Amino acid sequence: MVNRPDTAAGVIGVTALGTKVMLAVPDDAAEADRRLHELHEVHEMFLASRAIPKSGLCVDVGAGAGWFALPFAKAFPEWQVICFEPDGDSFELLGKNVARNGLENVTCVNAAFHPGLDAADLPRRAPGQGPLPTALNHALTATQKAAFQPLPGLGARLAPLPDDAADAGVQAPALSPDLLAALAPDLLKLDAPGGEQAIGAALRSVPVGFITGQIYAHTPAQAFLPTPEAGDRQYYLVAGEHALRRDYEDNFDTRQNRLDIVVAMYNCRGYIQECVDSLLADGNPDIRVLVVDDGSTDDSGALVTQLYGDNPRVRLLTKANGGCASARNFGRMHSDARHITFIDADDRVDPGMFSALLEVARYTGTFVVEGEFEWFTLDEDGNEVLTPSYEATEHRAPGHHRLGDLTYRWLPGDVVATGQPTIWRRVYRRDFLDRQNIWFPEHVRAFDDQIFQLLMARYCGSLAHVHGYAYHYRQHPGQDIKQGDERHFYSFNMFRAIFLRALDEGWDRLDPVFRSLLNTMAWSYAELKPSLKNTYLEAGSEFLAVVSKTYGHNFGPAELTATKIPGLELMLRRKLDEMRDTPSNYAVMRLESWRWQPEFIRMMDANRSAHADIQD
Amino acid sequence: MPEITFSCIMPTFNDGALIAQSVRSILNQTHDRFELLIVDDGSQQPTRDILAGFDDPRIKILPQANDGVSSARNRGLHHARGDYICFLDADDVRAPWSFAEAARVIDETDAELLLCRGVLSQERTQLQRFLDDIHFDGYEAELEALDGADEDVLPVIKAWATSAEPQPANKFIARDVIDRAKLRFPNDHFFEDIMFHTMAIAHARSIALLPSRGYTYFQRQMRQQTTGSNGQIRLDILGAARATFQLFEAHPDFANGRQRGALMISALRLLRWCESCAPSFHRYGYRVALREVLKSISPLYFALPDDTPDPRGDRQALLDYAKEVLSW
Description:
The structure holds 2 protein chains of 2 kinds. By secondary structure, chain A is α/β, with parallel strands linked by helices. Helix content of chain A is 36%, strand content 23%. In chain A, helix 5 packs parallel to helix 6 (196-203) and helix 14 (448-460) runs parallel beside helix 15 (490-505). By secondary structure, chain B is α/β, with parallel strands linked by helices. Chain B folds into 2 domains: 1-115 and 165-208, Spore Coat Polysaccharide Biosynthesis Protein SpsA, Chain A (Alpha-Beta Complex); 229-328. Chain B has helices at residues 18-27, 45-52, 69-79, 98-109, 133-146, 154-163, 175-181, 193-203, 236-249, 257-277, 280-296, 315-326; strands spanning 6-12, 34-41, 59-64, 84-87, 93-94, 113-121, 128-129, 171-174, 207-218. In chain B, strands 1, 2, 3, 4, 5, 6, 7, 8 and 9 form a 9-stranded mixed sheet that branches.
């Protein structure tokens, strides 16, 4: 793919898409580099990765001298190609280049697309139709003058100007984006700075099978994601370091371009409206709320129906009570969206938070994207108090990445693994959760988000942390974690499951899991009611002994002391001493203890009651 | 007709067409005061479609994301409202008279726990008595011999009952016992029945044996069953057995040497069998962990009274196995 100047000055040979064309090009080396880069790094890669039909209608918006359109027309002789180019000089070169290469399947139109223009009522081309209907052919030539702004440094490109700024710009021939919709191209190549949003919107429900191109100014991803009536669409739109790419989820082509927010609700009458309203606040039609009523006894389900019964963006699902994990999974099983998130019914978010996360998710393709979170309390007078989380001081680095008005940065999975479980401020790609088999364990009735977070952190590599939007995590005395009851022992059950999975999959780095285990133990021990602390100490030291024997790992005195669990180090040494002639082996992790599941602990209590009954 | 109500808990995971017969075997019970709680443990569409095809108000379907059979049965226990609770796996069958007979015996005896014999359908030849039939023979013989004696028969019954195959379909348990004993299956474990079986018997204050066979257990050719698998799932018995030993150790019935011995024999039989089915490359690890289990339980488990129920005559071989593991 070496592109050398041809014998004639200004004429170069361009090799791409399995063919070679000769192009007369403007004397602008930077522009030539840019165009060739796009041709080879964007369009050729995209087309190389798709099954392109043998015939169809290709529309090249911003054709320039024919950098893309001509190789395409030559490589796909059964396609019709229509080029749009507003700049007069470029258009002239384009016409000559078509002739130079003897291409008969290319039509050139000297026009840009301007969102301010109205379109006459045009018939839409039917997919697979041969020659264009006469009305459409006429419409191609019916250009009007409209205001554009030249973009110095971007070749001869023009960006549309709104009416009130028209005086500042230049006049150029233009057409309405609705004409594009009428053309209903099978493949669109897009290079229209400033026109992206209008063009995307015009085509959103049009069956355009392929879009390749360039996004110059940030355009909400929604513009290019097809509605269901548009059918399947493959797209690759590069925007700086970002790209909109319909690639992943190929096994799940029934999933919709939407975010479903699963709200697990159990007796939250007093909070659910505040919660759902905050989710709906930005009016984003791509976001839907699934309220899962987990067998509430306070009629909160009826309240949801009363408040949102007419709202197509809110759906109420009702199930028999089964705990938070089961409610979240239930919502997921009833969702057909590409992105999903799980929040609690007594919390709320900054308006626009999930739209922002979804936008970053769509432009980065990241498996997971998160917002910030704040502790949400009421002071003595009932005033709302929002306190930034520990991240405000720990993660102080500014965002390195910018997407439109949003800034974000990448957080490594290891950092996420050891943080507080905060699964509710994150948007997940559904295919990621499904493929990695990450679920909330149904039998776990508290802290089920811990294993979810650890597995997510393990598999996501890194996640995008978006600045400026926060989840409001309501603190009140009724919350699970304030009870200090035996449900804290679910942690051992979950970590056991994680270690077994780690063994199964041969995880090579366990340090984040070890750290997370000790963090959890420290936190649980502090929260536990006094009557359970001894049991926890035994459960914990036995668990650490089993983990040590499984991996031949040594928990150091400093990290054990840091848990502030008195005697933990000595207890662990004693347990290990009891196991001293047991070799390190993965199968040791298969052991179980009555202290590692709340259900067992309750059964043990029942045994004690049985003793008491005998004495009575 | 007695007013006793039953809850039958049926976990299913991709049982497909097999489940239809199991469900019908409940719906067609001659005693019709019952609820059938089907816990769908994350099945794919074919099974869900079959379940959706049943239109009977006595069926409650409880869906969950796949979380294992123990978790599914526990979900059923959480929702069960019947006076007595029983289990049926989604590829097995309950005899048509099973509920009616249980209701009659409950009416007559007020027993908190009912046990029944079963039928074993293997992949070839004739239908057979279920594996533990010989234990129930011993149970009945000893009770007959004791008839009229002053001796408290409950410890005798419990010893024999514990020795029977830990099979969830072979019993009806009063919900009172479940509540009192906080009985649950061990989440995350297969070979889960031994804990429930052992502790249900330990907490029951009265036990009766039903005269007729109450269920059929099918060994299937084309279906992956836990008991027919040989993957690393076999290592699961280690955890389930250890927690069972720990829990029983703390129950007053631990003092009943025959009952304790019956648990030991039953558990060792399972442990030895699982080792023999485990993949070769897991056997070293299996031994390491099993030794840890045996080292960590009460030494009294190794003190078996001479009259510990041992109708299969494998007591000595099993103790030799334990000795071999411990001195390994």
